TrEMBL record:
Annotated protein name in UniProt: C2 domain-containing protein
Pfam family, one: C2
Organism: Periophthalmus magnuspinnatus
Keyword Metal-binding set for record: yes
Molecular function terms from GO: metal ion binding
Signal peptide: none
GO BP term (any one): exocytosis
GO-annotated cellular components: extrinsic component of synaptic vesicle membrane; neuron projection; postsynaptic membrane
Domain C2: 1-102
Record carries keyword Metal-binding: yes
Gene3D superfamilies with a match to the protein in the record: C2 domain (2.60.40.150)
Length: 105
């Protein structure tokens, strides 16, 4: 949260082995503590290779003139708890959208 009591969050997706081609981010949601992101990213990757890859999805607070703050919620093979369960569910269900709400920390 910024000094004004709000945050300017956005979601960043990074697929490390693709370089800049694997980097995507949502629009910044201005002045909110309860953002909803209804945006979709897609990467062309074989399902058989997906378990070997890492997709890093994280939430950040945009700040002008200084480093953006990490808010939380990473999904991928390095996640823990419910986030890791979500990742595994995505791996198990080929060609199916798996949607879940995640609490930010």
């Amino acid at each position: 949260m910024d000094a004004n009591g709000y945050s300017d969050p956005y979601v960043k997706c990074l697929k490390p082995d693709m370089g800049k081609k694997g980097k995507s981010k949502t629009q910044i949601k201005k002045r909110t503590l309860n953002p909803e992101f209804n945006e979709e990213f897609s990467y062309d990757i074989k399902h058989s290779e997906l378990a070997k890859k890492t997709l890093d999805i994280s939430v950040w607070d945009y700040d002008i003139g200084k480093a953006n703050d990490y808010i939380g919620c990473q999904l991928g093979i390095t996640a823990k708890g419910e986030r890791l369960k979500h990742w595994y569910e995505c791996l198990k269900n080929k060609d199916k959208k798996i949607e879940r709400w995640h609490t930010l920390f």
